[in-house]
Amino acid sequence: MYGDTANKLALDAKRFQNLPSIPIYQADLVRDIVKEINDLNKDSEYLQTTRDKLQEQNEQGEEEGENGVLAENQKINECQIFVTHLSMRRNKRCLLAYEKVRSDKLVEYAWLNIDPMDNSLQSSTTAADGEGSDTASNTTASTSAAKSSTNSGTSSSKLIPNYTTQLDMNNLNHFEQDFYKNYQDLTMSYKSKFGEYLDLMGDLEPPTDIFIDVRCLKDGGDVTTEYGSFNLIKDSQFYVRKSDVERLIQQGYLEQI
């Protein structure tokens, strides 16, 4: 039935709308929907041609007093045209909704200012830290596991609620990759105009506390702030000003307790 394929695409868009990552592009479904739209368009053109013929026959039938059957055929034809156009419109709306959801997630990710390649590196580090031990054999095993995790494109970096924090460029089609790169260039150019006076990457939610407790999720080196410096060592905890560590929280180095 017309619209079933578009319904699958809409359900897929709804499924990953609240996920922190962007799944692979459904190229086959999109191709089938476009083909269906083209077929419906051909049917619509044929039905419109039939409508014109019925209209001419109806005008001739009025002169001869025989328009009962023709009027019934005209109603059927009009109903067919209406359903055909409605199916095309629904397919187009599902396609646009799917593309809009994916583009919104790309925009969201671009504003976090995280390099897509960092995700695989973070997952490798997390896997190595989780599986590492004091023995050399376990260290070798964790390193190989980290490499396989990187090759598979998976990411276990810290997730931020309601944000898109994971991006695999292989899941995007060619046009989405170009869109993301161009949009990222635009955002960087726009942010550079404000310099250090205004941080456009800050959290949109107003803070409830100026200072917060945070836990370090992985090693990250020394961090210098207005109130001093601290070293990012895994599992260590700090009481710091939220504005100083917002970027570290976004990048998965810290989590708020």
UniProtKB/TrEMBL annotation:
Keywords: Coiled coil, DNA replication, Nucleus. Residues 37-64 form a coiled coil. Residues 209-257 form the DNA replication complex GINS protein PSF1 C-terminal domain. Its main location: nucleus. Residues 133-158 have a biased composition (Low complexity). Residues 122-158 are annotated as: Disordered. SUPFAM superfamilies: GINS helical bundle-like. Residues 56-194 form the GINS subunit domain. Signal peptide: none annotated. It is found in: Nucleus. The keyword Coiled coil applies. Component of the GINS complex which is a heterotetramer of SLD5, PSF1, PSF2 and PSF3. Required for correct functioning of the GINS complex, a complex that plays an essential role in the initiation of DNA replication, and progression of DNA replication forks. GINS complex seems to bind preferentially to single-stranded DNA. Belongs to the GINS1/PSF1 family. This is DNA replication complex GINS protein PSF1. It comes from Lodderomyces beijingensis.
